[in-house]
Amino acid sequence: MATVHLIGAGPGAADLITVRGMRLLQQADAVLYDALVQPEMLAYCPQAVLIDVGKRCAKASTAQRFINKMLIDAARKYPRVVRLKGGDPMLFGRAQEELDALAEAGITAEIVPGITAALAASADAGISLTSRGLARNVLFATARVGEGEHASDWVKPVLAADTAVLYMGVKQSAAIAQALLEGGMASNTPILIVENASLPNSREWAMTLAELPQAASWELVGPAILMIGEVYRPALAQTEQRRAVA
Ligand code: SAH
């Protein structure tokens, strides 16, 4: 039976996968990939059977349980199976559910890390997540709660963090802004939104917390991440300067 490799594809750019991940793709018999995985990355494995388990593109979403089953079926059928996931598999990637399902089926799994969206977005923006004397901790969080899950209190940790990165949040910008303002965050707190980090069509916007609700109505074409903290103050000042000139 196969060893399944859970591989982080990185944030999007085809050359931001690790060398190890790319080599395993080149040798794979079957590759199950997510919606966030760019088509260019699949050029590394023309020999493989490609199985799209993307939750975005499918009209009725491919339920996680079904993905787990497809993964197990593939591992029983092919000697080298890759599960390719956007960013890093261990961060908001539901890797644990897949690892547990594989373990239960007696299938060995190995993980190859990837570059997570927060790091790619910071690279694009040219702004460090940490900064001497200003930001000494970073929070990775999401305000999204899945169906049937308990509501999570993401507000308190975001308020306490020097820099906070919210995954999967831009569509809910209005609710996020309201919750943070109610929690006591200053309305002029700087926010940076990065869409399509690492890709040629990447876009960035700096704004204050008070302005954040407007982001909810933007027509975004790709995944976007929301970053909050004083490290984004200079980016905000630049945006305000540009607005004053325009
Ligand atoms: N495991 C992934 C995250 C999956 S959750 C990782 O480590 O990056 C999906 C969320 O990740 C998206 O809603 C978005 O908030 C963020 N994301 C993924 N790729 C991104 C990109 N290229 N640019 C900006 N945000 C991205």
What does the model show?
This protein is an alpha/beta fold and 246 residues long. It folds into two domains: 3-112, 3-Layer(aba) Sandwich (Cobalt-precorrin-4 Transmethylase, domain 1); 117-245, Methyltransferase, Cobalt-precorrin-4 Transmethylase, Domain 2. The chain has helices spanning 19-27, 64-77, 95-104, 117-125, 155-160, 173-182, 233-245, and strands at residues 3-8, 30-33, 49-52, 80-85, 109-112, 138-142, 163-167, 190-195, 203-208, 224-229. The strands form two sheets. The chain has a five-stranded parallel beta sheet, with helices on both faces. Strand 8 and strand 9 (203-208) form a beta hairpin. The longest helix is centred in the N-terminal third of the chain and has 14 residues, at 64-77. The chain starts with a strand and ends with a helix. 41% of the residues are buried. The model has no long low-confidence stretch (mean pLDDT 93). The structure holds S-adenosyl-L-homocysteine. S-adenosyl-L-homocysteine binds at residues 11-12, 36, 86-88, 91-93, 116-117, 120-121, 167-168, 194-198, 223-225. S-adenosyl-L-homocysteine is lined by residues 11-12, 36, 86-88, 91-93, 116-117, 120-121, 167-168, 194-198, 223-225.
